Every structure is written in structure tokens, then in C-alpha cells.
From TrEMBL:
Gene3D superfamilies xrefs: NAD(P)-binding Rossmann-like Domain
InterPro entries named in the record: ThiF/MoeB/HesA, ThiF_NAD_FAD-bd, Ubiquitin-activating_enz
Molecular function GO labels: tRNA threonylcarbamoyladenosine dehydratase; ubiquitin-like modifier activating enzyme activity
Source taxon at top rank: Bacteria
Alphabetized CDD domains for the sequence: YgdL_like
One biological process term in Gene Ontology: cyclic threonylcarbamoyladenosine biosynthetic process
Pfam family, one: ThiF
THIF-type NAD/FAD binding fold domain segment(s): 12-239
Protein name: tRNA threonylcarbamoyladenosine dehydratase
Length: 240
């Protein structure tokens, strides 16, 4: 008998689709503005096995766009907060919480020990993102990679395409360039926006956690990227 909270889902995707989701195993790396929304909606769809990864804690600057970020949750670990939230959505969820910044060297080990059906890349810095994509390709695990949501305002410009078709996104450009050196030019699904980034919103950083700069962000854009990624994963998992 289906759980009552999944009744509407079952009406749409039927018992067979729901069963596929319940038997699926998904990894989401990054619990920021994109990853937190992807995690929530993958959990709400009824995916039965989920691993979430992030070593970061909530900062006051996260409140404008990140699901776990509240004034009451400042300095608390994002994975813990999201873990509590999505376990409350689905108490039967088999949830693995990895509370650390995953270095490029650790990416492959996480993938190899998980037996994942799909990986959602919500990392916002180049080197770890590149390492995750390469590890997924090497281990033949499906991945969708979320590119830059910063510096953009128009939700109608967000689309999903192969990495080779991305444009008007500096993060995607860097990833394309570095993947090309590794002999990878296509075969990776990406969420990105074709809207030109607003250069006036760029700010440089000290380069910690592999991040040299960031763009200003509006509340809804990272969430839209996360929902697009969740939709890609769910539709793949339920297909015949």
C-alpha cells in the first residue's frame, strides 16, 4: 500500500514509477542554493536512497537564496539541517549524510562506495566540480551538472542541454575548457542559463574552498536550477 503522502505522485507516475523511485539511489553534492532545493524535491518525489554532501555551515549571506538558511540556523551545518528536513518529509528515506568539503581526491571514492543511479552536481567552484564530473564519467554513473546561477535574473532563460551546448556562462566555459583537455567534449547534461551575466555583480574572494569569485544572486534563480536538476533525475529514473 502506498504511503498517503505519495498518493498524488502515484496518480501521475503510477505504482511502477513510484517503485522505481523508491528503489533508486541518488547522490547530491553541495547543499547551497541549488543543491538544497534539488535535495528537497528529489525527496518529495519519493526517491528511497539519498546521499547529501557538504561541509559548509549556514552564513547570514546565505539567507537570500538557500533552503536551510534562516537567522535561527546561522553557524549550523547545512547537511545536518537538510537531513533533518528531508527525513521529516520521508521518514522511511535511507539517508546518508557526508558532512565535509569533498576534495577532488575523494570524489571517486564517494562514487565507488555508493552504487548510485544518478549524481547531482551542485558545486559552485571549478576544481571540485571538474573532479566530480570526471569521476562520474570514469565510473559510468549518470550526472547532471548545475552551472552558474549568479549574475542572472530571468528564469525563462534556464534550460538543460549537453555541456557542449552551454553558452553565456563563465563557469560552464571553464568546465568545458578543462574537460576538453581530459578528452571529454560532450555527454554531460547541464542546467544553465543563456542570459548574459551582469558583470557589475561580480565580487572577488580570497580563493578559499577553491573559489576565487562569485556573482550576486536573487532568491529564485538557484532554486530554479535545483528544480530543473531534480526534474531531470526523476524523469530519468521513472522512464521505461
Amino acid at each position: 500500500m502506498v504511503e498517503m503522502w505519495l498518493e498524488r505522485t502515484e496518480l501521475l507516475i503510477k505504482k511502477a514509477g513510484l517503485k522505481k523511485l523508491q528503489n533508486s539511489n541518488v547522490l547530491i553534492v553541495g547543499m547551497g542554493g541549488v543543491g538544497s532545493f534539488a535535495a528537497e524535491f528529489i525527496a518529495r518525489a519519493g526517491v528511497g536512497n539519498l546521499s547529501i554532501v557538504d561541509g559548509d555551515s549556514v552564513d547570514i549571506t546565505n539567507i537570500n537564496r538557500q533552503l536551510p538558511a534562516l537567522h535561527s540556523s546561522i553557524d549550523q551545518n547545512k547537511v545536518e539541517l537538510m537531513g533533518t528536513r528531508i527525513q521529516d518529509i520521508n521518514p522511511q528515506l535511507n539517508l546518508r549524510q557526508i558532512r565535509e568539503f569533498v576534495t577532488p581526491e575523494k570524489m571517486e571514492n564517494i562514487i565507488q562506495t555508493g552504487n548510485y543511479d544518478y549524481i547531482v552536481d551542485c558545486i559552485d567552484s571549478v576544481s571540485p566540480k571538474l573532479a566530480l564530473i570526471k569521476a562520474a564519467k570514469k565510473n559510468k554513473v549518470k550526472i547532471i551538472s548545475c552551472m552558474g546561477a549568479g549574475g542572472k535574473l530571468d528564469p525563462s532563460k534556464v534550460i538543460i542541454r549537453d555541456i557542449s551546448k552551454t553558452r553565456n556562462c563563465y563557469l560552464a566555459k571553464q568546465i568545458r575548457k578543462r574537460l576538453k583537455k581530459e578528452g571529454i567534449q560532450k555527454g554531460i547534461r547541464c542546467v544553465f542559463s543563456t542570459e548574459l551575466q551582469r558583470e557589475g555583480s561580480l565580487k572577488m574572494t580570497d580563493g578559499s574552498n577553491f573559489k576565487k569569485s562569485f556573482y550576486g544572486t536573487i532568491s529564485y534563480m538557484p532554486a530554479i536550477f535545483g528544480l530543473y536538476a531534480a526534474s531531470e533525475v526523476i524523469r530519468y529514473l521513472i522512464k521505461d
